[in-house]
């Protein structure tokens, strides 16, 4: 192998190593500071210049999408298991919404870029969000067919409800039971039947 052939191979290996190292540092940093943390600080901690970071990940959303890739694959493995093992469409939908809830709380602040991605097709997270909605729709349709879910409910709103519940965790007024209570409210509604006159 000539020197000219060795150099590009080494450059590709260095590039892959840099990318992997940036992702490791970003994972730790976002776990501590949330997804709104400084990208320049991530670059500094990774020992690379901001330009190197942006060459690998041109936007914050691209970095988040790369970090979430492994979790995304694990989540859809779980989706397959839920579909295969649950004979109860109501239970299957509940399990999937719980799994989605775990995914969107991987990092503090994650619901915000996912919500934005729903209306920005150019976002690297947009395809991810659409895949979640499509999977939710499959389980929701089965639950509606079996009479467990109201016919006017849409999968998009269910996904948004997962994001809303995840966002609530960081709200100033929230306590340990708030997320659980909101999930229950979203599932069954808050209104009681009108009292009957005696």
UniProtKB/TrEMBL annotation:
The keyword Transcription applies. Pfam families: TetR_C_43, TetR_N. PROSITE patterns: HTH_TETR_2 (PS50977). Keywords: DNA-binding, Transcription, Transcription regulation. Residues 16-75 form the HTH tetR-type domain. Residues 38-57 bind DNA. GO terms for molecular function: DNA-binding transcription factor activity; transcription cis-regulatory region binding. PANTHER family: HTH-TYPE TRANSCRIPTIONAL REGULATOR BETI, HTH-TYPE TRANSCRIPTIONAL REGULATOR RUTR. This is TetR family transcriptional regulator. The lineage of its organism: Bacteria, Bacillati, Actinomycetota, Actinomycetes, Micrococcales.
């Amino acid at each position: 192998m000539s020197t000219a052939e060795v150099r590009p191979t080494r450059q590709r290996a260095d590039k892959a190593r840099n990318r992997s190292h940036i992702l490791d540092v970003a994972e730790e940093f976002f776990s501590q500071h949330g997804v709104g943390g400084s990208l320049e600080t991530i670059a500094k901690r990774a020992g690379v210049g901001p330009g190197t970071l942006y060459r690998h990940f041109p936007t914050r959303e691209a970095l988040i999408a790369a970090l979430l890739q492994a979790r995304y694959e694990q989540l859809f493995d779980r989706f397959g298991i839920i579909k295969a093992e649950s004979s109860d469409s109501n239970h299957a939908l509940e399990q999937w919404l719980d799994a989605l809830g775990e995914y969107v709380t991987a990092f503090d602040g994650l619901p915000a870029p996912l919500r934005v991605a729903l209306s920005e097709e150019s976002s690297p997270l947009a395809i991810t969000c659409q895949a979640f909605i499509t999977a939710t729709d499959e389980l929701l349709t089965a639950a509606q067919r079996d009479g467990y879910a109201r016919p006017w409910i849409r999968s998009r709103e269910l996904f948004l409800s997962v994001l809303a519940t995840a966002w609530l965790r960081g709200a100033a007024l929230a306590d340990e039971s708030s997320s659980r209570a909101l999930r229950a409210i979203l599932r069954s509604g808050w209104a009681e039947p009108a009292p009957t006159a005696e």
